[in-house]
Amino acid sequence: MQFFVGGNWKCNGTKESISKLVSDLNSVKLESDVDVVVAPPFIYIDQVKNSLTDRIEISAQNSWIGKGGAFTGEISVEQLKDIGCKWVILGHSERRHVIGEDDQFIGKKAAYTLSQGLGVIACIGELLKEREEGKTFDVCFQQMKAFAGKLPWLYAVPSWDNVVIAYEPVWAIGTGKVATPQQAQEVHVAVRDWLKKNVSAEVASKTRIIYGGSVNGGNCAELAKEEDIDGFLVGGASLKGPEFATIVNAVTSKKVAA
Ligand SMILES: O=C[C@H](O)COP(=O)(O)O
C-alpha cells in the first residue's frame, strides 16, 4: 500500500512564515510513491492552496459535524471542499483532551465527512496513564469502534478507501518522547487485527495505519521499517520543509527493509 505522510501544522504560523514554509516545500525533493498532505490552520488554507505545489494535498484540522448553517465559529465540510481540501483530521488528541470532543461526536463528524467525499485521517491513541494501566488496546479499539462501529454503511469498502488511521499515543505528542518502533508496531498490528475482525480482511489489508508522536528527521527511518507502519502524522517537524521531506522520504527505508 502507498506510504502516507501528513503534516499537521496545528495552530502555528503567520502569513509570512507559511509563505516561507510553502516555498521550502515547493523546492524539496519528495519520493513519488508517497501520498503527502499538509494541514494548515483554516485561515491559511486558501493561501497554501494557491501557492503550494499540487504534489501535496491539503487537509483541514477539523470540520463541523454536519451541513453548515447557524453554527458560529465552525467550518463545514462543504466549505472545505469548496476551498480545495481533500482530507480532514478528526479525533486528534488535542481535540479530544483539550477541547473535549467525545467518541460519539467524532464518529458522527467522520461519517459526515466521508459522506461528502472527503478523506478522513482518523486519530486514535491512549494517554500515558492508560498505557501504564495496560489499557492501550482497549482505548484504541473503543475509539476505532466510534469511527466505524455504529455506522453500518461505513463498512462498505469504498468508504474505507478514504480513511487513514493515525495512531498517536498522547504521551508522545509534542513531548519529544517517541514510541519505540516496537511499541508502535505492536499497536498497529492490533488495530489491523481489529479491522479484520470487525470490518473485513480486505479493509484490514488495504487501510493505511500511520504513526504520530514526536516523529522527526532522526527517528523516521527506524519507524518506517516496521511492517505495519504505513506512514506518519507529523506535528512540530512538519513546520520545517527539509525535515518534513526527510520524513516523507523515509519510505526508502521501508523499501530496503521489505
Ligand atoms: O498531529 C500530529 C501529532 O499530534 C504529532 O505532533 P508532534 O509531531 O509535534 O509530536
If you had to describe this structure to a student in words, what would you say it looks like?
The protein has 258 residues and is α/β, with parallel strands linked by helices. It has a single domain (3-11, 18-23, 34-63, 74-257), classed as Aldolase class I (TIM Barrel, Alpha-Beta Barrel), CATH 3.20.20. The chain is built from 13 helices and 8 strands. The protein has helices at 15-27, 45-51, 77-82, 93-99, 103-115, 128-132, 136-148, 157-160, 181-198, 201-206, 220-224, 241-248, 251-257; strands at residues 3-8, 34-39, 57-60, 87-90, 119-124, 163-167, 209-212, 231-234. An 8-stranded parallel β-barrel has the order 1-2-3-4-5-6-7-8, surrounded by 5 helices. The longest helix is centred in the C-terminal third of the chain and has 18 residues, at 181-198. The model has no long low-confidence stretch (mean pLDDT 94). Bound molecules: glyceraldehyde-3-phosphate. The site of glyceraldehyde-3-phosphate has 14 residues, from strand 8. Glyceraldehyde-3-phosphate binds at residues 8, 92, 168, 173-174, 212-215, 233-237.
